[in-house]
UniProtKB/TrEMBL annotation, chain A:
Subcellular location(s) per record: Cell membrane
Location of region: Disordered: 1-31
Protein's UniProt name: ABC transporter permease
Domain (ABC transmembrane type-1) ranges: 117-305
UniProt membrane topology term: Multi-pass membrane protein
An annotated GO cellular component: plasma membrane
An annotated GO BP: transmembrane transport
Pfam families listed in its UniProt record: BPD_transp_1, OppC_N
Statement: the UniProt record of this protein carries the keyword Cytoplasm: no
Keyword entries, A-Z: Cell membrane, Membrane, Transmembrane, Transmembrane helix, Transport
Bilayer-crossing regions: 50-70, 121-145, 152-173, 179-196, 231-253, 287-308
Chief subcellular location: membrane
UniProtKB/TrEMBL annotation, chain B:
One example GO MF annotation: ATP hydrolysis activity
Name of the protein in its database record: ABC transporter ATP-binding protein
Membrane topology (UniProt): Peripheral membrane protein
A Pfam family per the record: ABC_tran
CDD domains hit by this protein: ABC_NikE_OppD_transporters
Main location class: membrane
From TrEMBL, chain C:
Signal peptide range: none
Entry keyword DNA damage: no
Entry protein name: ABC transporter permease
Keyword line: Cell membrane, Membrane, Transmembrane, Transmembrane helix, Transport
PANTHER family: DIPEPTIDE TRANSPORT SYSTEM PERMEASE PROTEIN DPPB-RELATED, DIPEPTIDE-TRANSPORT INTEGRAL MEMBRANE PROTEIN ABC TRANSPORTER DPPB-RELATED
Length: 317, 353, 309
């Protein structure tokens, strides 16, 4: 899994720093609202096309995943080999079963694409939530308490980082008889939690030594308060960015495994692409639609993550 | 137009040639603005000043007064966009640099006009040795070989009194102390013996004891090479020792110009007076220290009229509506006070009252 | 420097042990029985199965098996395959050069094209060229590598006929070009993005302003001042990516039928040859660890502020 975090500390003051420094100050009459990191990021986000397109797509995907029956009347599981074998798409038949054509078993590709959304999103969200909670906790422990805990957790993350992600997942999934959604989530989260741990640890360490934490401590704030009220809100920014992008990459991981024949029981875009390879030469449409839907979903999360990252990073404005 | 030409170049400087036409650098009615997402920040609004060879002009002001942006405009290092220079002239030896080609300007930068920045640590490239960064000046502008350039770099470092220059020429910026780093910045600016040096708060980041050493060094080298020097600072203490004349800036405008000692004796603008009064003095021990009330203006929304009016103790109605032009300041009997100007409707009361 | 390397090598030992242990445990909870698999569909002879297991130490407790395995590794013995009883090391060394070559080609592609795109986009931030590069990298990252593989195979192999759809001879560098391109595509996008961000950050740095004020020509400012600083994080990524490329080759090798490590791994998974899987991962862990050491050492060369203590 590529590590997208950057931790170098190049300070990049603006040329107009002297001018902008005076901006928030109020001279005569001009009243500006004080800006917070998140407030500022939100103002910025609302104007970014990447953010708008990304979130609209994700909302749409979520609706499709929740109520696939709203989008198609066809049954994704049953095929009619006699009438529909590898039938070509009818691109004008919007939302009809034959919109994207039929696959090698005479099943409606459109229906399969629609019904496949749920498993992909379940895996994506499931893994991301699990690793953010567990990996985030581990990172916080390591970063805040340091010493023994840091050494232990850091070595542990080193060990997990050493294992090639896809190979590890293949080994785990190869050993189970029934590949269900929780199993896939478990396997991917087991191998992937260290990604969030590293980011969280780094962010906590950075913030731990920040002046405002020292100030809070000097004012008598306890460990719990400092961690939850001061460090966590600031350390969350990079974690959220990484988690959003990771969500997309876990959807890719699930479909890659399914493509390799380690797909979950049920409809999966990856498995459908694997099936498609048999007929791909003369009927490329069996590949295009599941692959397109898969890519579009991943794209939505990456766009969102990108937009959030840029909005949260004042250096890039 | 809100400001008029003021002949600050004819300041009675012992070293300067005197005549305005002989000015090394002549900034005329310079405007600089930045187009940000919150609106147009008018950083510089019609600045005029000039410097002659061997002369030191101190530009004084709070942060946000436009003093650094003016300097960056002279160097040609304002980021454009978002920066823009909608009007004005920057004459160097009589030629308007704003009309020159990029290549012409580049050749002036570093060799004819050099700049010393405030924070030497971030202003020096962290991954290149100081010898390389100094030598680069000779390699680029004079086509020297790597070896010659390094020898020159050692020479320069000795020049600015860095001990064991030969051994340290291959060290990196972070391996030097703050004062030594600033000396390296000075050496870099001095490398090609430019006609004009712009020093942007050269000592602000340094310890007080080191500040004096660095300032003395700068003044000494300036005299030796007979360079013009623009010293940008917010520190009135630094100015008194080295400057010939002062321009006080506020909200992107020059509000007062004067030969250095005249300014301290008789300020002609309430802002300058406020600055002087806020210096702690030994003979006023025990009294409350004076401070100018309020904050510098938001450059997105500069107050109408005189930009200083919301903070001015003497503000009248006219100050809220009309921008005071920079006018020559005279004695009560009308005798010329060469080099003096004030942008205050009530300069007469301020200086004489 | 020497002491630092020694210390880093020492630190690698627990990580190496931990990683091999982890993969060893993962592999050995595989329910399938590789020995029984020798008989295929026929019912295995229990006595013979027990005999083979005894000979190979497969009837020992797991921790003893692991110790045996590690002891063998120290002597360069990766064990033998169950089917065919061939030395696993031989199989790996036969497949490794192919994967290494593929990874090296992909890596070069990432480095050259990725950095070039990133620099152009970073310098012209906000312009059309920047937006195009950003869009391109977004698309490349979003489309899974196996989809790219299949698409390229379909387009250049079957439709246009520029290349054979699958690799006929894995020793032939020209034939590896297409798989290498596919393999390096994602990394290329990340390199381009990282370079772009890094350039865009450094371009605003104070020392860049100084470089302009020195009157340096633009070319020199970019190549000597901007790039030197901006490429530091990119080097880290490229270093760790060597390991990822070796591991990620499973999919690409499968699509293009390249007989590399990924191919070997596939067969091992199908035959439930745990020892082969552990062996392959062991080699990859070594590659990964050495690559990260190399990156750290390179870091010091690129950034003099970093000192080894």
């Amino acid at each position: 899994m590529p590590d997208l975090t950057k931790t170098e500390t190049a300070d990049a003051p603006d040329q107009a720093a002297e001018v902008t420094a005076a901006e928030p100050r109020n001279g005569a009459g001009a009243v500006g609202k004080p800006r917070s990191l998140w407030g500022d990021a939100w103002r910025d986000l609302r104007r970014r096309p990447l953010f708008i397109i990304g979130s609209l797509l994700i909302v749409l995907m979520l609706v499709v995943a929740a109520w696939p029956g709203l989008f198609t009347s066809a049954d994704p599981g049953s095929g009619d080999l006699a009438n529909h074998f590898l039938q070509s798409p009818n691109l004008t038949h919007f939302f009809q079963p034959d919109w994207f054509g039929y696959d090698g078993q005479g099943r409606s590709i459109y229906a399969r694409v629609v019904y496949g959304t749920r498993n992909s999103l379940l895996v994506g969200f499931g893994v991301t939530i699990t690793i953010t909670l567990f990996g985030g906790l581990m990172g916080m422990l390591a970063g805040y308490f340091g010493g023994f805990w840091d050494s232990l957790i850091s070595r542990l993350t080193d060990v997990f980082f050493g294992i090639p992600f896809l190979l590890g997942a293949m080994v785990v999934l190869n050993s189970v008889d029934q590949i269900t959604v929780p199993v896939v989530i478990g396997a991917l989260a087991f191998l992937g939690w260290t990604q969030i741990t590293r980011v969280m640890r780094g962010a906590v360490i950075t913030n731990k030594h920040a002046d405002y934490v020292t100030a809070a401590r000097a004012l008598g704030a306890g460990t719990k308060r400092i961690l939850l009220k001061h460090i966590l809100p600031n350390a969350m920014a990079p974690v959220i960015v990484i988690a959003t992008i990771a969500l997309g990459t876990y959807i890719v991981a699930e479909s890659t495994l399914a493509y390799l024949g380690l797909g979950l029981n049920g409809i999966s875009w990856g498995s459908d692409i694997n099936d498609a390879t048999q007929n791909i030469r003369n009927n490329p449409h069996v590949l295009f639609f599941p692959a397109g839907m898969l890519s579009l979903t991943v794209l939505a999360f990456i766009m969102l993550g990108d937009a959030v990252r840029e909005a949260l990073d004042p250096k890039l404005r | 137009m809100t400001s008029m030409e003021i002949k600050t170049g004819s300041a009675p400087s012992s070293r300067s040639g005197g005549d305005d036409s002989g000015a090394l650098l002549d900034v005329r009615d310079l405007h600089v603005e930045f187009h940000t997402r919150d609106g147009v920040v008018k950083a510089v609004n019609g600045v005029n000043y000039n410097v002659s060879s061997g002369e030191t002009l101190a530009v004084l002001g709070e942060s946000g007064s436009g003093k650094s942006v003016t300097a960056q405009a002279i160097m040609g290092i304002v980021d454009m966009p978002p920066g823009k220079i909608p009007q004005g002239e920057i004459l160097f030896r009589g030629q308007d640099m704003l009309k020159m080609s990029n290549e012409e300007r580049r050749k002036i930068r570093g060799s004819k006009i050099a700049m010393i920045f405030q924070d030497a640590l971030s202003s020096l490239n962290p991954v290149l040795s100081v010898g390389y960064q100094l030598g680069e000046m000779f390699r680029v502008h004079e086509g020297m070989s790597r070896k010659q350039a390094k020898a020159k770099a050692v020479e320069l470092m000795e020049r600015v009194k860095i001990p064991a220059a030969k051994d340290r020429v291959n060290d990196f910026p972070h391996q030097f102390s703050g004062g030594m780093r600033q000396r390296i910045m000075i050496a870099m600016a001095l490398a090609l013996e430019p006609d004009l040096i712009i020093a942007d708060e050269p000592t602000t980041a340094l310890d007080v004891t080191v500040q004096a050493q660095v300032m003395d060094l700068l003044a000494e080298l300036q005299q030796e090479y007979n360079m013009g020097l623009i010293l940008i600072t917010h520190d009135l203490g630094v100015v008194a020792d080295v400057a010939d004349k002062i321009a006080v800036m506020y909200a992107g405008r020059i509000v007062e110009t004067a030969p250095v000692h005249e300014l301290y004796k008789r300020p002609a603008h309430p802002y300058t007076r406020g600055l002087l009064d806020s210096i702690p003095r030994l003979d006023q021990k025990g009294q409350e220290l004076y401070a100018i009330k309020g904050l510098p203006p938001n450059l997105l929304h500069v107050p109408s009229g005189c930009p200083f009016n919301p903070r001015c103790p003497k503000a009248q109605d006219i100050c809220r509506t009309e921008v005071p032009p920079l006018v020559p300041v005279t004695e009560q009997d009308g005798t010329d006070l060469p080099g003096r100007g004030s942008a205050c409707h009530f300069w007469e009361e301020t200086i004489h009252g | 420097m020497g002491r630092y390397v020694a210390r880093r090598l020492l630190q690698m030992i627990p990580v190496f042990i931990g990683t091999t242990l982890l993969i060893f445990l993962m592999v050995n909870v595989l329910p399938g029985d590789p020995v029984a698999a020798l008989w295929g569909d026929k019912p295995p002879d229990p006595a013979q199965v027990a005999q083979i297991k005894h000979d190979r130490g497969l009837d020992l407790p797991l921790w003893q098996q692991y110790l045996h395995y590690m002891w063998g590794l120290l002597q360069g013995d990766f064990g033998n395959t169950i089917a065919g009883n061939r030395p696993i090391l031989d199989e790996i060394t036969a497949a490794l050069p192919v994967s290494a070559r593929l990874a090296a080609m992909a890596w070069t592609f990432e480095l050259v094209v990725g950095i070039a795109l990133g620099v152009i986009a970073g310098i012209r931030r906000g312009r059309i060229i920047d937006n195009s590069v950003t869009l391109f990298t977004l698309l490349v990252i979003s489309v899974p590598i196996f989809v790219f593989g299949l698409l390229f195979q379909l387009l250049f192999g079957n439709q246009l006929g520029w290349v054979t759809p699958t690799v006929q001879n894995s020793e032939d560098m020209a034939q590896l070009l297409m798989p290498a391109l596919v393999l390096g595509l994602v990394g290329l996008a990340y390199v381009a993005r990282l370079t772009r961000t890094s350039i865009a950050e450094n371009i605003k740095a104070d020392y860049m302003r100084t470089a302009v004020a020195k009157g340096l020509p633009r070319r020199r400012i970019v190549s000597r001042h901007l790039l030197r600083n901006s490429l530091i994080p990119v080097v880290t990524y490229l270093g760790t990516d060597i390991g990822t490329l070796m591991g990620g080759a499973v999919v690409t090798e499968g699509i293009f039928n390249v007989t590399g490590v990924g191919n070997l791994l596939f067969q091992a998974l199908a035959r439930r040859e745990g020892a082969v899987i552990v062996g392959i991962v062991t080699v990859m862990v070594l590659v990964y660890l050495l690559a990260s050491l190399l990156v750290d050492l390179l870091y010091a060369v690129l950034d003099p502020r970093i000192r080894y203590a």
